[in-house]
Specification:
With about 425 residues, the chain is mainly α. Helix content is about 60%, strand content about 5%. The protein starts with 8 loop residues before the first helix and ends in a 7-residue tail after the last helix. InterPro entries: Snf7_fam. This is Charged multivesicular body protein 7.
Length: about 425
């Protein structure tokens, strides 16, 4: 991978861990952290294990990676002069794999394969009980980093798409990642966990695309409308690339025409002016085509949303028929709900309109409590003793009232 075979990771590691102990290969702190784990799993030092797990993810995030070959993580990222490497990293990677922090790309389904192959592969993975250890040539897929990148893609696509799904070409999807290999590893994860779908539109040109979910729900199956939308999106990208190229050539022709005119070469200036006019005409035609394609793409998105709304209405009507509910009953319930909502809003408005200074003072409130106490005492009927009463219920009415009065008098009312 580009990020794993060039310069950069050593500076990233130094920035993450600090240069105090990293630049001292003979230091006790560095050698203690580079030692292998010994004994049983329960005897491993937990701070050391968490240190390496967190550092691996932080370095990968700084390098903008979602995946990396295992041999680079264990032998290159943290290598020190003299060939000194952390001997505990293979065990750390196995722990991260057991915790679900990393997955092997070889264990993920190939999104470009058929549905039958993916089903057979999943069934075979369920049968396998024991897992082989991580090999140096394995590609590690960092789960949390893929999900973070996926959330970032959703945020970017949501700015220009108002539907629950978005269709992009494979080149557009790859542009969100550092390189094509990293994008493919992330695509394997997203497809396997239902957050994206890979498909190919077969027309005059074979176009690869990805249907991406812009919500937390699983992405829906690919439809014929999605194939048409992918081909239009691909055409839109091609037209935009052509328009950008025409813009550059138009600007170059204008500059050359001006330079030739200033140098006195009127024939060359005339030729460049003519070329710039031809480029301008091509730009105009390309812009018109691009606008038409964008309009069709928008119409397809609207049609898809209309189809979903129609489907929801159809399901609602079917449910009403099954429950023997008429439209009139639904309208009555909706009207009652509207009236309740309106009444609640009036109550809320009335409560908000009460000024704070209208609240009585604490002395007035206590006076009201005493009057309430007298009223309650007059209304309580005389107690008829029918026999001995247990000690737990010996409290007299007057004592209960006094206790209630004392408790209420201690209540402190505050402005809401």
């Amino acid at each position: 991978m580009a990020s794993g075979e060039g310069e950069g990771w050593e500076a990233v590691v130094r920035a993450e861990v600090g240069s105090e102990w990293w630049d001292d290969p003979d230091g006790a702190d560095l050698r203690a952290r580079f030692k292998a784990f010994t004994g049983q799993r329960s005897d491993w030092p937990q701070p050391k294990l968490l240190f390496w797990k967190d550092l691996i993810l932080r370095v990968a995030r700084r390098l903008r990676l979602c995946s990396a070959p295992a041999h680079l993580v264990t032998s290159a990222w943290f290598a020190r002069p003299g060939g000194l490497t952390p001997l505990c990293l293979p065990q750390v990677l196995e722990e991260m794999r057991a915790d679900g922090d990393i997955l092997l790309k070889s264990e993920l389904n190939d999104p470009t394969s058929g549905n039958l192959y993916q089903l057979v592969r999943r069934m075979s993975q369920l049968v396998v009980i024991s897992r082989r250890p991580i090999a140096p040539e394995d590609i590690l897929v960092f789960k949390s980093l893929v999900e973070d990148r996926s959330a970032d893609i959703v945020r970017q696509l949501s700015d220009s798409h108002w539907t629950s799904t978005c269709i992009v070409t494979i080149s557009k999807f790859n542009s969100f990642f550092l390189d094509q290999e990293d994008a493919y590893a992330a695509l394997c994860y997203l497809v396997q966990f239902g957050k994206a779908r890979y498909f190919v539109a077969q027309k005059q040109d074979t176009v690869q695309g990805v249907k991406f979910a812009l919500s937390t729900t699983r992405v829906t199956a690919v439809s014929k409308l999605d194939h048409d939308a992918l081909h239009l999106v691909w055409t839109e990208e091609k037209l935009q690339q052509q328009l950008d190229a025409l813009d550059r050539r138009w600007e170059i022709s204008r500059r050359r025409a001006l330079a030739s005119y200033k140098s006195g070469d009127k024939q060359s200036a005339y030729r460049h002016v003519k070329q710039s006019k031809l480029f301008s005409q091509s730009r105009r035609r390309c812009t018109q085509l691009l606008e038409r394609v964008e309009e069709v793409v928008s119409l397809i998105a609207s049609a898809d949303s209309t189809k979903k709304v129609y489907e929801a209405i159809r399901i609602g009507i079917q449910a009403m028929k099954e429950k023997n509910i008429s439209i009139e009953e639904v309208n009555i319930h909706l009207k009652e709900i509207d009236e309740l909502v309106a009444a609640q809003r009036e109550v809320d408005a009335a409560l908000e309109s009460i000024p704070l200074h209208s609240l009585d003072s604490e002395e007035n409130i206590e006076e009201e409590f005493r009057e309430l106490e007298a009223e309650l005492q007059d209304e309580i009927p005389p107690m008829q003793v029918q026999g001995p009463v247990s000690h737990a219920n010996e409290e007299a009415p007057n004592e209960a009232i006094e206790s209630l009065s004392d408790n209420l008098s201690k209540v402190k009312l505050e402005a809401i």
